[in-house]
Amino acid sequence: MCTNNPNDSNKLNSLTDNLYKLLLTLNKKIFNIQDLMKKFKAPGSHVKVLFYLVHHGSSPISEVANDLMISKPNMTPIIDKLVADGFITRYYDPNDRRVIRVEATSAACDFLRAQEIKIKENLTEKISTLSIEDLDKLNSSIQQLSDILLKIQ
Amino acid sequence: MCTNNPNDSNKLNSLTDNLYKLLLTLNKKIFNIQDLMKKFKAPGSHVKVLFYLVHHGSSPISEVANDLMISKPNMTPIIDKLVADGFITRYYDPNDRRVIRVEATSAACDFLRAQEIKIKENLTEKISTLSIEDLDKLNSSIQQLSDILLKIQ
DNA sequence: TATTGTTATACTCTATAACTATA
DNA sequence: TATAGTTATAGAGTATAACAATA
């Protein structure tokens, strides 16, 4: 269809090419976040807020909005829904009455845990066709890659 | 916040755990498709259709809709827009007059190529803080991982 | 009768501006 | 005055059912 890019001879750029291709392959063969989100009953923004709160703890609404790039006005219905569902609690910050903080409940943890289990079942199914040797190689490359990625930023 | 899952002692399951963590790390540190999509001027569905057509060649509209899980009625405005922008052409299938096929133009290739370059610049920037040794390790683990992933499915 | 694609339409999510209350 | 959050509202994207054209 399109003509291909010539592979860059520069070492860093060729590494970037390989990383880019890996990301495409992962997206195609292993884990497509877009498709995954569609399977949730809740819209993506709601799930992202829940995930954020479970991992960051109690936060002001505007902080969540900024970090997730959700506009402030749209936070209101999202927060309303999550409160109504029992996934978060909302309370005024005692130090600054302008600020409303939100915090995930144990129901939120249960919900995300259930999603995590489903995702992992799906992952296990996908890699289960590999040979023992390939699984071992897969594990070592995943660990090496993870170690290095954690050094970034 | 939540209590952590105990790591599974089963070998395949612990591999899945590591893969899951890697995907989270990649999403957080390297490449967040959701945020990326927001930077496109076009909505996600349009970009996905373009990407699909560039990689699959001429296709019936319903085939694109099925593969990308876009409902048929919503394909009409998407296709209209991409035709108006000069990114695809639309023509009746000579063998079956019910079918309308669409095909990416060279402008579509140019557009996606430009996006690819931007993404790679971003990737290069992110990994450029790593040491030479880590870059070498990164490259070898990416290649090993890619080789194995290509065996899946 | 079955299939491809479109039209019509209601619904959900999002983006922007103007507002209230607290600081 | 500046900031946090809300209200109001218009617009963009999506889902569903009913339809016309072709097989």
Keywords:
homodimer, 153 residues, mainly alpha, three-stranded antiparallel sheet, 7 helices, 3 strands, 8% strand, elongated, DNA-binding
What does this structure look like?
Two copies of one chain form a homodimer. The first copy, chain A, is mostly helical and 153 residues long. Helix content of chain A is 65%, strand content 8%. Chain A is built from seven helices and three strands; from the N terminus they run H-H-H-E-H-H-E-E-H-H. Chain A has helices at 11-29, 33-39, 44-56, 61-68, 72-84, 106-127, 132-149, and strands at 59-60, 88-92, 100-104. Chain A has a three-stranded antiparallel β-sheet with strand order 1-3-2. In chain A, a hairpin with a 7-residue loop joins strand 2 (88-92) and strand 3 (100-104). In chain A, helix 3 crosses helix 5. Chain A is elongated and about 55 Å long. The relative contact order of chain A is 0.08. The model of chain A has no long low-confidence stretch (mean pLDDT 94). The interface between A and B is large, with 67 and 67 residues.
What oligomeric assembly is this protein in?
A: homodimer
- Give the radius of gyration of chain A: 20 Å
| Tally of helical runs of chain A | 7
H/E element sequence of chain A = HHHEHHEEHH
Largest interface: A-B, 67 and 67 residues
Distance between the termini of chain A: 37 Å
Name the average pLDDT of chain A. Answer: 94
Helix content of chain A: 55-70%
Quote the beta fraction of chain A. Answer: 5-15%
Structural class of chain A: mainly alpha
**Total number of beta strands of chain A:** 3
How many strands, what sense, and barrel or not for the largest sheet of chain A?
A: 3 strands, antiparallel
Shape field of chain A: elongated
Strand neighbour order, sheet with most strands of chain A: 1-3-2
